[in-house]
Amino acid sequence: MLDLRYVVDHLDEVRAALARRSDKDAALLEPVAELARQRLSTMAVSQTKAAERNGASKAMAKLDKSSAEFAERRELLKRLSTEVKTLERELGDVQAQLTEQLSRIPNIPDPSVTVGASEADNVVVREGGKKTDPGFEVKAHYDIGVQLGIIDFERAAKLSGPRFTVLFGAAARLERALINFMLDLHTTEHGYTEVLPPYLVKSESLYGTGQLPKFESDLFKTHKSDPDKSYDLYLSPTAEVPLTNLHAGEILAGDELPLAYAAHTPCFRSEAGSYGQDVRGMIRQHQFNKVELVRICRPEDGAAELELLTQHAEQVLQRLGLHYRCVELCTGDLGFSAAKTYDLEVWLPAQAKYREISSCSTCGDFQARRAKMRYRAEQGKKPRLVHSINGSGLAVGRTVVAILEQYQQADGTVVVPEVLRSQMGCDVIRKA
Fold first, then answer.
1. Total structural domains in the chain?
2. What letters, b where the CB count within 10 A reaches 16 and e where it falls short, cover 184-213?
3. Catalytic annotation on 356?
């Protein structure tokens, strides 16, 4: 969430910054500006009336309780007290509306981000791995997987409906091997602490990372089984939510930072806005596995921490021998909470295109303000908001897709990347 005081004091500057995203985002400021004016006006009147009430109370204390003037002062005090309470309620209502409006305004793009309208304006930063010509027509993962007997979409649909997948045999082992490989790499070599968080999260946690209130339609919400439970639970759309909120409402010690967490979790997304997109295959699923990376740091370290986290995610692709590219998103393609984002896009030869496999973002203090996450640099110093950085390290299902296509052979088999062979127990995936 943006800082209300900063928004009000620098309205034109914030409007121009949001316009770098889109005119639609900049327009979201208008009700905030009007509500901020109402807030100041109501606050001024409330303070004036409160002063009058306090003065009337002091004056009444000096009067004879049996006098007519005392009775008049008492009636005045009652009226002023009622007016103050009414104004305080109005001020609370305005503040609630302000918070609601601010919660729907996206983060301000970092000044270094290229201005653009869509993914067509994104900037390729670098490429990794070799883009080879296989010498034959590569089959899509959903075809080769079915032919090998390791992926089944029809039975998944029978169990759960569309956008679900059942993995058998080598595909199930490949997914498990990738999860273990990613977690071992990030914890052993990159210094992340492994976390196994709950898969159900409160609405407060989703609010903290920016999924709520704007993107509720993208979430799966559970029904309450306990009528006495006072909060809602949602299936977590990404481990970014529980990992970032581990320290919600806390004041961390400066020497604890940076904190680095890695977690494997299933992710659940309704894909409400993706009708007709990626209908076939495993690219866009309601349920998928992901290894998530989160770093929490001091503000001055945020830019360097984003670069570091992105490099950690890239190393997964490099060690798997997959061809990919790193793309810096333009302002028009940034996610809601992100100030700057690098997407890692893996090459899928059957589609002849790059597809996102990791999105690494710095959110600045945007999430920290929502989740009330702060740190104290030194004892006695005023607490400051931390910066939060997150990214996939990687999306496991899409990594399976990339391996099935990039390592595919002309005879319909798939070579197993060398770093996974000990866990897979084989060098090649053949028809079962």
1. 2
2. ebbeeebebeebebeeebbbebbbbbbbbe
3. yes
